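TA notes, week 10

Several of you asked for a full example with nothing omitted. So below is the full record: structure tokens for the whole chain, then the designed sequence directly under it. When grading your own attempts, check the secondary structure regions first.
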């Protein structure tokens, strides 16, 4: 027997999979003559569908918190102070010492290098004319003259040595 919904005029078919008291098209409950009424909680009109849960805001909040935590804890890797960690794995730059035998500051420089495990090449500017030419070419007018990579230090300067060689100092 075919029934028509009083709300949307949908004709009920025999193979509809909804209760007899509910319209298959609009989901509203209707009273058929001689049928059972729907349960008390379902007598309101409207679709019999649970409202969709909206978790989009929570999901974005969790993503933002995760990105913030990654930035906060990854910040030390982005700071300039993190450079010696990466540089420590690299090999020590070439260190050259232009010196003389009798110079006290040259002796201090040698002792500093030995105490801190720094490899260096020493050139005596009094015994080698080639070393003297190179010393003058680097702008040296005294001893010791220390060349670390591309940096030149005129005279004894422990602070500058520690700053330039800090990743390789073993003391």
């Amino acid at each position: 027997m075919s029934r028509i919904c009083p709300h949307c005029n949908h004709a009920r078919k025999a193979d509809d999979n909804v209760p007899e008291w509910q319209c298959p098209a609009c989901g509203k409950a209707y009273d058929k003559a001689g049928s059972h009424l729907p349960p008390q909680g379902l007598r309101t009109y409207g679709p019999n569908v649970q409202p969709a849960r909206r978790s989009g805001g929570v999901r974005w909040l969790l993503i933002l918190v995760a990105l913030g935590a990654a930035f906060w804890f990854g910040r030390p890797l982005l700071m300039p102070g993190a450079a010696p960690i990466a540089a420590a794995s690299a090999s020590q730059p070439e260190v050259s010492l232009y010196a003389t035998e009798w110079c006290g500051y040259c002796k201090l420089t040698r002792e500093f290098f030995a105490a801190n495990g720094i490899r260096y090449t020493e050139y005596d500017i009094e015994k080698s004319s080639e070393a003297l030419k190179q010393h003058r070419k680097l702008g040296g007018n005294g001893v010791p003259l220390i060349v670390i990579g591309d940096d030149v230090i005129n005279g004894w300067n422990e602070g500058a040595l520690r700053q330039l060689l800090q990743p390789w100092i073993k003391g």
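The chain has five helices and four strands. Use that as a sanity check on your answer.
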